[in-house]
Amino acid sequence: MSEQAIGVFDSGLGGLTAVKELIKVLPQENIIYFGDTARVPYGTRSDKTIKVYARQDADFLLSKGVKLIIAACGTVSSVATELYEDLPVPFTGVVIPTATAAVRATKNGRIGIIGTPATVKSSSYKKEILRQDDRITVYQQACPLFVPLVENGFISADDPIVQLTVERYLSEMKAAGIDTLILGCTHFPIIAEAISNYLGKGVTLIDSGKETALYAANILGNKGLLNNSNTLGNCKYYVSDTVEGFRKTADVFLGKSVEYEAAHINVEHLIKKTQS
Description:
Order of helices and strands: EHEHEHHEHEHHEHHEHEHEHEH
Oligomer: single chain
Number of strands: 10
Strand content: 15-25%
């Protein structure tokens, strides 16, 4: 089973930031990624819809024989928590590893959280932080415009649209004096430079993709599922919208040095399989 792939899914392509980190941390592992690009974003949908989509995404990965599933999506990790109990393979979202890293990083006990509206509404990161240390003060802010900015290529720290949006969302947290900020959506590290420039060098940014990759490595190690091959693993990518859309934006998330090719999966097939 150790040579089976790690399965990763997200509502769109933001989860590729987690894949990028997995490749760094576990270069020998095979990875299968599914981006539900036909139904992105999840963060503005109802809890019921998010849970249905998450189950369909996970079932697709299970059909590929994966040994671990990662929900590289702050929204799914926050809302569809029952996935932890229902899957036949180990599972992790991004909330626990990211919150744990933030608690370790803060020095003044003031942590900010940014995410999709659904993530912030659930208070999942806040609850986990306070479970670990109830002395911490937590500030939350939904940033619904960040995902479409990234998906449409508005990512430069010098772009005035990006700068104005960052200031609009983060001005209150800056005034509150946070020293740690959770990037609670895997799209957000793409504009981390703009966020860091606005908040200043004294604020530590916690990348949910990076922390989740490290956490996944620990899970596999503890369960004896690490691939100990001496060869580099391979990555397969699937999307529910056009593969052309994947090719246009994958460089942003994966980096131009990564080779990739995507295949299309019909969302109707996912729905029918869940209903059968």
